[in-house]
Amino acid sequence: MVRSFLGWILALVGATAAVLSTCHAWLGDRRGRDYRIEDLFNGITGTHAQLVGSIILPFAFAAVVTLIGLLLRSRPLVALAGTVVLGFTILWMVRTGMAEGGLAVNSDGTGLKLGVAYALGGGLLLLLAAGVLRGRRGGGAGAAPADPAEEEPRPWYPAPDESQPPYPRA
Question: What is the pTM of this model?
Answer without folding.
Answer: 0.76
